């Protein structure tokens, strides 16, 4: 198993493992995003199968410019795929693989890039404010959610106006619109009026402000 001390392994086997793993023994074939937080990694062992005890899956978030690689260890020697989970949503990652035998690491594979899938926004629009164009025309304005909470491409916003607990108006605007004049306000009146806004992607809507 991984971590076995080299002195427990015959010298000729260690030497053979070093020789075999010094060549390209693994090929990274595909990276397939399976959700907004998971990627399936598929590979093939080209040669020296007897000296591949497991695989180190190394990956890093390139969207944020991280230089440090994360590590997942696959201890099943015969495995040809593995799903990495707990990734960031709608984020680009760089992957490569390293085969190992006991404490000996082989040559790294080729590298590939992948982007996790979109998800709904995880935060509401910020700084929602109610104002007045004139005495009978109120408007609402807002700022977009923090970019790290987009989790995809923002397609627009939904604005909901309530009087007490009753929804009296709803409207949808595109992603570049950050304010709207509220319709029919003279009929609604301002008593008990509340406005809230949410952002949405192709996957669905985020939380209301």
TrEMBL record:
CDD domains: FN3. InterPro entries: FN3_dom (IPR003961), FN3_sf (IPR036116), Ig-like_fold (IPR013783), RTP_Phos/Ushers (IPR050713). PROSITE patterns: FN3. Residues 25-119, 124-209 form the Fibronectin type-III domain. GO terms for cellular component: membrane. It comes from the Eukaryota. This is Fibronectin type-III domain-containing protein. It comes from Cuerna arida.
